[in-house]
Amino acid sequence: MPDAAAYLATRFHRLRHPDGTERRFEIFNSFGQPEKVAAAQRLRAQHSAAAMINELTLAGFVITHRDDVPAVDPIDQPGHKIAPLICAHCGRHIGAIKVNPDMTVPLTSVAQQALAQLPTTCDEHKALSNA
Ligand SMILES: [Zn+2]
Q1: DSSP sequence for 49-65
Q2: Which one, 38, 52, 80, 112, has least CB within 10 Å?
């Protein structure tokens, strides 16, 4: 299971934009820097990437790698359903999960981690609904 944040941290110096150009964050460029400075920049990149992934996760995005997705996606199977996940306290929508026709929900390790990262307080749920 590739680590999205760790990968992103290695790409800040050369991000590939969908238009074919590159975006570079020079603050993370450690080329030619003394090792102590380069190590601090790598650490800053790792923390920044982890914060970005966390922010996306808190906003409801699920970051996965294609290697962790089943070969046949349940959404392609006839009769599948998407079950909304609702907070039992405030009633706000906090996510969704694919349910197979036989009412099973196979969870990859990435999906299990994503569920564990769902916001757990109603203040966070309110922030999600206002996003
Ligand atoms: Zn709630």
Answers
A1: HHHHHHHHHHTT-----
A2: 112
Percent pLDDT > 70 in the chain is 90
Output the CA 52–ligand 1 centroid distance in Å. 23
Q: What is the secondary structure of 60-111 as a DSSP string? A: T-----GGGS-SS-GGGSTT-EEEEEE-TTT--EEEEEEE-TTS-----HHH
pLDDT for 96-105, tens place per residue? 888 888 888 8
Distance 90 CA to ligand 1 centre (A): 4
Is the distance from CB of 126 to CB of 90 less than 8 angstroms?
Answer: yes
- Separation of 100 CA from ligand 1 center, angstroms? 26
